[in-house]
Write a structure and sequence with these properties.
With 251 residues, the chain is an alpha/beta fold. It has a single domain, classed as TIM Barrel. The chain contains eleven helices and eight strands. It has helices at residues 16-29, 47-54, 80-86, 96-102, 106-118, 131-135, 139-151, 180-197, 200-203, 216-223, 240-249; strands at residues 5-9, 37-41, 59-63, 90-93, 122-127, 163-166, 207-211, 230-233. An eight-stranded parallel beta barrel has the order 1-2-3-4-5-6-7-8, surrounded by seven helices. β1, α1 and β2 (37-41) form a beta-alpha-beta unit. The radius of gyration is 17 Å and the shape is globular.
């Protein structure tokens, strides 16, 4: 049985003061929840402030991105060693906003994923299709290509360290959500694909989150599906009450 995993992606919101205050509220709101892994992903300058709050609690911390080198002339980047030092357990990689706005490609995301694992950081690897791809019937081809590319070269014994986050681009921040049936269909395809990449046993251990306008009102129907193991939450993670409700629905 896979343990549910809910992560909140705060995106470019909440400087250190506000991020710490939100973390305090979330820690209090999810106190006693011990059947779900939970993490929040603050903006980079807020990581230290949030870590001071969440250390030794049941709330973990994720970065929103990571570079693959340990150090060097890479202006504006964060290395896996830095994330480890500041208290990150996870990092989000390959989010559609990184792909679309900042031009990150599948090869770069793969290098980041392998670097994260080699340094003990657990990657949350995002994949998803545009509305045009959904309507043209190419969802599975697009998502399968992204997953295979991102996980290329990762050893079977490290497969369980990866979380895959299926986020249909047309549902991110739009208020539109894939129906539970649509989401399950893609999650099942990803699970089968993971079995081909690794083994069926390994695939059964890998958690696949759903992301895309996840709210307290829709999480119960999503998490009830066999291959949906949690959520990567955007806007609803910026309020402790709504984020905690999502977490508790998954417990």
């Amino acid at each position: 049985m896979r343990r549910p995993f809910v992560a909140g992606n705060w995106k470019m919101n909440k400087g250190p003061k506000d991020a710490a205050a939100l973390a305090v509220e979330i820690v209090a709101a999810i106190k006693g929840v011990d059947t779900v892994d939970v993490a929040v992903a603050p903006v980079a300058i807020s990581l230290a402030a949030v870590n001071a709050i969440v250390a030794n609690t049941n709330l973990g911390m994720s970065a929103q991105n990571m570079f693959y080198e340990e150090n060097g002339a890479y202006t504006g980047e964060l290395s896996p060693l830095m994330l480890e030092e500041i208290g990150c357990t996870y990092t989000i990689l390959g989010h559609s906003e990184r792909r679309q706005i900042f031009g990150e490609d599948d090869e770069l995301i793969n290098r980041k994923a392998r670097a994260a694992i080699s340094h003990g950081i657990l990657p949350i690897v995002c994949c998803g299709e545009t509305l045009e791809e959904r309507e043209s019937g190419s969802t599975n081809d697009k998502v399968a290509f992204q997953v295979k590319a991102a996980l290329s070269g990762i050893r079977i014994e490290d497969a369980f360290k990866v979380t895959v986050a299926y986020e249909p681009i047309w549902a991110i921040g739009t208020g539109r959500t894939a129906s539970p049936e649509q989401a399950q269909e893609v999650h099942a395809m990803i699970r089968n694909l993971l079995g081909d990449i690794f083994t069926a046993e390994a695939a059964d251990k890998i958690r696949i989150q759903y992301g895309g306008s996840v709210k307290p009102a829709n999480i119960s129907d999503l998490i009830a599906k066999a291959d949906i193991d949690g959520a990567l939450v955007g806007g609803a993670s910026l309020k402790a009450e709504s984020f905690a409700a999502i977490v508790k629905a998954c417990s």
